[in-house]
Amino acid sequence: MLAHRYLVDPAILNGIVYGCLYGIMCVGLTLTYMTTKVPNFAHSDFVVIAIFSSASAFIFGNMASPYFALPVAAVAGGAVAVVVYLLVLKPLTRRGANIVVLMIATLAVDIVLNAFVAAFFFDFLGKTYAKVLADKGYYLFNLNQLPDFQAFGQRGILIVAPLALIGTTIFLVLLLNKTRFGVAMRAAIENPNLARILGINVERVYLVSWFIAGALAGIGGGLYAIQSPSPPATSSYIIVDVFSGVVLGGIGSIYGGIVGGLIVGFSETYAIRLLTQFADTYWGYAAGSQLATFQKGIPLAIMIITLLVIPKGLTSVDWRRLLRRFR
Q: What is the pTM of this model?
């Protein structure tokens, strides 16, 4: 029954899953950037809160599958994003805060949200319901992978993650191009002052945009909990990949964020597999295991190379002109 299971390298399959998850998360970060024009360093905290919210709903709600908890993840991520926008970014923007102040503010929010996750999920839930969690085989301070279903000899996440990314892309295309709100969103982002003159409620548009961004981060987080364990430093791991994907795709481009997230997620997972195999072959297993600890250096390298070669990302490249040169 499992003879066909490893026809495809597991590293490739994992790379596809991570690429899809980071693609969804990158879209969320792009949306928050488009409204406030500032990189949101707290975006990965929306993901982490969604991870533990959906895990808690699954564990304590005795749900049949963690996929049923994805709406909880989406609402949790969206709600936190709205709170951050209303309490921090919106007041500072109204006071004329520059990009440096706003960036520092998102870093401060990152610290606060990390403290909230530690206090609520780890300390309160982890200690208050320690026996319940232990009986179910969980310990929220270092969340195990949530159970998954099997299909065609593969984990269900390999099917669900690409479908989620495709669904996200279709949703955004229809929202931005086929709805009045999408037109209002594009107008408010492009020229908020002119949009206000035309009668568009720019603040409402921004608020909904932040909720959508947080909800997408939440969906990515809910799926991430099924794909990977979630230790306390998960936020720090995720933000590196998400920023790298956004920079690679082109910061400010929704579709660029999807492409960038796909490339970074896949490259990081598969490249570290190739590098460790190479090190194992030529320098021994110890060298390969040591090299694996530098996995996050791969997305950082991608981001640095992108900033040096194509600082505006892949979406800024005239691909038709480039292809004509090689013909």
A: 0.90
